[in-house]
Design brief:
Length: about 260
């Protein structure tokens, strides 16, 4: 191949293009691992996590060597705290759903800049979709009765009580990324979570939701801050901006 015909180097990609590309490729790798048919359900989750994580970590260190990195499947590194740009990834968000061959699992590739979820992509490989910050679409209008996505196994008390107060329909769903993207895609209207998460569970989804014009905050209205020494994040609210005041008010009323 001549030098003139060489493909565009990944280093020439914007951060958003890189995030989307890596999330999409990791999703395809995960589907291939699952389709191999040689792993038990328990082993499949471990193999999928390890495969996607190795790809994402090596690719990001190759393409953005000066940035920090935080992954659910990697030992934490304190040097990231001195970085203004930190990639926060979840190789398989919803390992259980992935292993059960459901569609409500995701791959998260997010970039926090000065603590703000600024760039990212969420791949939904089971649906063949990648949502990204550089290609925001229009969130479809809300129906007359609001829909709130909740855990399909452990719905949070605050979510169920708020849903009852505002007359919202509960929509059980798997991973955090799938729930957040359901709001982005207009399949739901509110994602209220109070059961505890980690930074990798929400960084990329929040970046994508913000790019689509949605409200994202803690359930008491405070801002979400990333790249902290303690990566535990107790709660999260993603919803349409016109519903934020209503939901936050009801959370306060039920003692969230």
């Amino acid at each position: 191949m001549s030098q003139d015909a060489a493909p565009t180097s990944p280093t020439a990609m914007t951060d958003a293009e890189l995030a989307a590309h890596l999330a999409e490729v990791a999703g395809r790798l995960l589907l291939e691992v699952r389709a191999s048919g040689v792993l038990s359900l328990k082993a499949l989750g471990k193999a999928g996590d390890a495969t996607a994580n190795q790809f994402l970590v090596h690719a990001l260190r190759e393409q953005r060597p000066d940035d920090g990195l935080l992954s659910e499947e990697e030992k934490d590194n304190p040097e990231r705290l001195a970085k203004g740009r930190v990639w926060i990834v979840d190789p398989v968000d919803g390992t259980r759903e992935y292993g059960e061959e459901r569609s409500d699992w995701a791959v998260h590739v997010g970039l926090a800049i000065d603590g703000v979820a600024s760039v990212g992509a969420v791949a939904l490989p089971g649906a063949g979709v990648v949502l990204r910050t550089d290609a925001p679409g229009t969130v479809p209008p809300a129906p007359e009765r609001l829909r709130m996505v909740v855990s399909r196994t452990r719905p949070a008390r605050e979510a169920t009580e708020v849903a009852a107060r505002i007359g919202a329909e509960l929509v059980p769903m798997g991973s955090a990324g799938a729930k957040a993207m359901a709001v982005v895609r207009g399949e739901a209207d509110i994602y209220l979570h109070s059961g505890g998460q980690y930074e990798w569970d929400s960084c990329a989804p929040v970046a994508v939701a913000l790019a689509h014009g949605l409200h994202c905050s803690r359930i008491d209205g405070r801002e979400l801050v990333y790249n902290q020494a303690d990566v535990y994040m107790p709660d999260l609210l993603i919803c349409r901006k016109e519903h934020a005041e209503l939901v936050l008010g009801q959370v306060a009323a039920v003692g969230g």
